[in-house]
Design a protein that fits this description.
- The chain is an alpha/beta fold and 485 residues long.
- Helix content is 39%, strand content 13%.
- Among the domains are: 141 residues, 3-Layer(aba) Sandwich (Rossmann fold); 162 residues, 3-Layer(aba) Sandwich (Rossmann fold).
- It has 17 helices and 14 strands.
Length: 485
């Protein structure tokens, strides 16, 4: 099986670049043959990974057209990208050619947050028109969508209810023993909050954090804010103007971009890590906050929180309201110990879920299942579409669907024969072998027929995953549904 990736970024320091590179390295370590078409960047050679780069779009499209001839699966990264129209045209022509040979070609997409409801909240009319007349039509060619978090998968299902959707987290890079130098607390020192990420006031929720800091200081609870980040589309000027207009210059430090040891030192000098994002895809910045050993607060719009259990949400997740943030910060600084223990447990669990071996195996299983479904469909038009194994992303043991033996992982059985042998689920195996003591009680899993839940996650998440809230589990496989690996 040969997989061809079209990547808008690869090997860069941006989140999307890290995401694609991490996935491809994980697949390479599993022995899968992958080719990626990307921008010209410095990339270390990897076994089983072929990197083709071009300085211009036409060069990359030409390379894509050559490589697609021998590909079994094409994996497209991103959305709302006009360049993808040309890519889809090449795919359509290749599919027409393959009708003469009977060889299937499957399309997999990963939006990387580009199809979230938050993205549609700005320039709504233009994006809605583009979605309905271009992007939705292109998506009809797609066999599978792979999202990086359950929250992103839920939103995508609202846009594409018939799409088969899988959830595989990104690879978390090893910390390589990075040490955060602890700074001794000085009596009378004003506590400092720290946030990391690009300067985007609305999306990153920086206005909420500045408002909360001003409110606390006005009420006699002194606190400072340090914003470490980089400029994008004039974000630095916008942030500085916002601080100036709110007369918050005495309380807010715009530290600009910091890297390596300097960033670690500046983060270690603070008393708490805050990420107030209204929307955040799979966030490497949040992982840095968890690794710092500081108490952590994160906005409910961060997709990574959909992997949290109930106790983690109670301790660390804050709704997007300045008054709520002010109260959460005050309570945290008064009593940080319990939050720190919860953040440490969260880091351990995420590292277990997001190791290269677990992610690589999960992706390989999805690719294999997609390929085997088509092989079976080519020989039997009546063969129902099966689903790969399902893992509960909260780490809570999932109830079985239909009757299964205790030795088998939970699957969407649907009374159909699976196209490939039943395999042990890598995410559940990682969580079972973590070996870490659980500092808080886990909630028991809820029944499968309870669709009502205000937040994604928690004990009834599996009912949303399986789509039992609006689909019957018998009578064949549903047209869509979420597959957690």
């Amino acid at each position: 099986m040969r997989i061809l990736h079209w990547a808008p970024q690869f090997g860069t320091e941006t989140g999307t670049g890290k995401a694609i590179q991490g996935w491809l390295r994980a697949l390479s370590s599993r022995g899968l043959s992958c080719t990626v078409i990307s921008l010209p960047l410095e990339i270390q050679p990897e076994p089983n990974l072929k990197v083709l780069q071009g300085p211009g779009l036409w060069t990359r499209l030409r390379l894509f057209g050559e490589e697609i001839k021998t590909a079994n699966i094409v994996h497209l990264h991103g959305a709302f990208d006009i360049k993808l129209c040309a890519v889809h045209l090449i795919i359509a022509l290749e599919k027409i050619w393959r009708m003469t040979t009977g060889e299937p070609l499957h399309i997999v997409i990963t939006p990387h947050g580009a199809l979230s409801s938050h993205v549609f909240s700005t320039k709504t009319h233009r994006k809605t028109i583009y979605w309905n007349f271009v992007e939705r039509l292109l998506a009809k060619q797609t066999s599978l969508a792979i999202c990086t978090t359950p929250m992103e998968a839920q939103e995508l299902e609202g846009l594409l209810p018939k799409m088969r959707i899988g959830v595989v987290p990104l690879v978390l890079p090893d910390s390589k023993g990075a040490s955060f130098p602890r700074v001794k607390t000085v009596a009378g020192r004003v506590p400092t909050l720290c946030t990391l990420g690009r300067y985007d006031i609305h999306t990153k929720g920086l206005d909420l954090l500045i408002d909360a800091v001003l409110k606390l200081n006005s009420e006699g609870f002194p606190v400072r804010l340090r914003c470490i980040g980089y400029d994008q589309n004039g974000g630095t000027k916008e942030l500085e103007d916002q601080v100036r207009s709110m007369n918050a210059g005495d309380f807010v430090e715009c530290a600009g971009p910091r890297f390596g040891e300097e960033k670690l030192r500046m983060l270690a000098e603070c008393d708490a890590f805050c990420m107030p994002s209204r929307y955040e895809s799979f966030s490497y910045a949040l992982m840095e906050g968890l690794e710092s050993g500081l108490p952590v607060l994160v906005g409910s719009g961060a997709c990574l929180t959909s992997f949290f259990d109930e106790s983690q949400r109670r301790s660390m997740v804050v709704e997007p309201d300045a008054n709520t943030w002010a109260a959460a910060i005050q309570n945290l600084l008064k009593s940080p110990a319990e939050n720190i223990k919860c953040a440490e447990r969260t880091l351990r669990e995420l590292r277990a879920k997001c190791s290269a071996s677990v992610v690589g195996e999960s992706l390989a299983m999805l690719y294999h299942a997609t390929w085997m479904v088509a092989e079976k469909s080519a020989t039997s038009a009546t063969t129902p579409i099966p689903s790969p194994p399902v893992a509960n992303p909260t780490g809570v043991a999932s109830p079985p669907v239909h009757s299964q033996t205790s030795a088998s992982p939970p699957t969407i059985a649907q009374n159909h024969e699976s196209p490939c042998p039943v395999q042990e689920n890598p995410l559940e195996t990682a969580m079972a072998s973590d070996g870490s003591p659980d500092e808080s009680p886990q909630l028991a899993p809820g029944p499968l027929d309870l669709p009502s839940q205000e937040r994604l996650g928690g004990p009834n998440l599996l009912s949303k995953v399986l789509g039992t809230s609006n689909r019957k589990m018998d009578g064949g496989a549903p047209p869509g549904g979420r597959l957690f690996l």
